[in-house]
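Quick one:
INPUT:
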């Protein structure tokens, strides 16, 4: 048996207005193909003779913000270095990066994995470093020709390097998803892998189970989705396992590319070491202090903290809390829904004389289950069918909270509530108004309900006789008949109670 040893090198492109070392527009929030190639370029980012770079202060602040969120240790003084390599996408022949004194070192990010007995378990993924650098251009391959679009060159990047501590492909995917979520919560990047705003190189080696030695690693490139990261690592585990079983494990550092079509990794080159890049301090940029920025930067509530709070404060299940905090827009929507929900709970007559804390405590679990189910299962499901994004949702948090109140107070049953939600999704109007106009509300008149029950019992004498003889499962058949008789506008629990009362005689 062999144990995987996995480490990740992640680049996150910051969504600053301008590039890292020049004033060119940073078009990281759009797909680069939407604009003409080489539109956003200047002598600085294309490396013309005699030009001088100037550091983007916003990029420094956002790097510090990410560093704080990752619990890292900041260097009191940091600097930029030149990293030399020759490739068409690097017009200067070097990249301005950081080598021995990065912005941040160490740090960690906690992820939720599946532990013993399939129970959730937190794992701390420790980091080596995080540094700032500029992006390269984009190569466009057309047959035998390679074209270069310099719109992206010079865009600000933060590179985060993990310790080789990830134990499986699924852990690597979870870590990347959590890091993407963190970048979005901090509002420093959209971190969209398909647009190249988040890029990952995965390093993997195997070792015999119980062995603590590190063996030569293989770096996998061309990973542009979370599934690609997971599949490429799974493939490499299989490939390297076969080499170990043959007594011929990898003996040198190497780089392989992931072929999404073939679902295999293919050898590219022997991996470079740091000395191959001939690092030296960037002569045009002096060393800089981060102390002022560190004091200035504050953090918002982070994803994991919000997840825990949603469970404790709103009574949401772990699964629902995770789904609703995995997108910042959904998390904000949920927050507003509950704020409105507590407001109408406070206004109920039966809540008079109770403090807000008592009301919330009493109703947390019930409202949490109700809201969680309707948000994650019903609303999200309908929106997925209609391809509606939360950012263009017509339903307001106020209207959704009112919708929940109608269900909570038994003014509408679940089947009719789903019809109502569909109407709200299309029109975005007040739920009570729609319910009344479409006559979706429950019949609460006792005389009407009793007449419907008596009618059903009269029309189904055989089932009544069987029920009274002990076949009590037929209660569901009779409930269904009453629901049909009333066009689904009555409370099934009220119907059951009335039927059981009538069937005793």
């Amino acid at each position: 048996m062999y144990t995987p040893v996995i480490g990740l090198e992640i680049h996150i492109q910051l969504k600053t207005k301008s590039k890292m070392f020049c004033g060119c527009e940073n078009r990281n929030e759009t797909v680069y193909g939407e604009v003409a190639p080489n539109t956003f370029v200047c002598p600085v980012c294309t490396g013309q003779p005699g030009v001088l770079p100037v550091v983007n202060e916003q990029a420094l602040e956002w790097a510090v913000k990410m560093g704080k969120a990752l619990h890292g240790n900041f260097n009191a003084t940091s600097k930029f270095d030149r990293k030399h390599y020759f490739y068409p996408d690097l017009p200067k022949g070097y990249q301005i990066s950081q080598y021995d004194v990065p912005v941040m070192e160490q740090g960690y990010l906690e992820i939720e994995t599946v532990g013993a007995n399939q129970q959730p378990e937190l794992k701390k993924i420790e980091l080596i470093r995080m540094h700032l650098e500029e992006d390269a251009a984009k190569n466009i391959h057309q047959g035998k020709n390679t074209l270069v679009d310099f719109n992206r060159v010079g865009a600000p990047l933060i590179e985060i390097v993990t310790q080789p501590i990830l134990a499986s492909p699924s852990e690597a995917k979870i870590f990347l998803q959590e890091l993407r979520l963190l970048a979005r919560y901090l509002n420093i990047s959209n971190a969209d892998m398909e647009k190249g705003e988040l890029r990952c190189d995965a390093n993997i080696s195997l070792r015999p189970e119980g062995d603590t030695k590190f063996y030569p690693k293989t770096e996998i490139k061309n990973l542009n989705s979370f599934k690609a990261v997971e599949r490429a690592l799974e493939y490499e585990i299989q490939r390297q396992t076969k080499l170990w079983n043959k007594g011929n494990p990898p003996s040198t550092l190497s780089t392989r590319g992931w072929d999404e079509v073939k679902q295999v990794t293919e050898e590219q080159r022997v991996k470079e070491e740091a000395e191959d890049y001939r690092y030296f301090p960037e002569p045009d940029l002096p060393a800089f202090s981060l102390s002022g920025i560190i004091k200035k930067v504050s953090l918002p509530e982070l994803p994991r903290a919000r997840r825990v709070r949603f469970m404790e404060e709103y009574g949401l299940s772990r699964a629902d809390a995770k789904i609703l905090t995995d997108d910042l827009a959904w998390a904000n929507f949920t927050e507003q829904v509950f704020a409105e929900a507590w407001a109408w709970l406070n206004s109920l007559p039966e809540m008079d004389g109770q403090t807000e804390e008592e009301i919330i405590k009493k109703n947390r679990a019930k409202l949490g289950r109700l809201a969680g189910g309707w948000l994650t299962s019903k609303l999200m499901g309908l929106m997925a069918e209609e391809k509606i994004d939360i950012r263009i949702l017509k339903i307001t948090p106020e209207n959704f909270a009112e919708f929940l109140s109608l269900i909570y107070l038994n003014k509408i049953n679940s089947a009719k509530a789903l019809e109502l939600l569909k109407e709200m999704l299309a029109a975005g109007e007040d739920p009570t108004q729609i319910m009344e106009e479409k006559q979706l509300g429950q019949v609460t008149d006792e005389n009407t309900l009793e007449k419907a029950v008596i009618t059903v019992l009269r029309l189904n004498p055989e089932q009544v006789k069987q029920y009274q003889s002990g076949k009590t499962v037929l209660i569901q058949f009779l409930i269904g008949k009453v629901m049909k008789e009333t066009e689904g506008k009555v409370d099934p629990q009220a119907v059951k109670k009335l039927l059981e009362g009538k069937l005793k005689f």
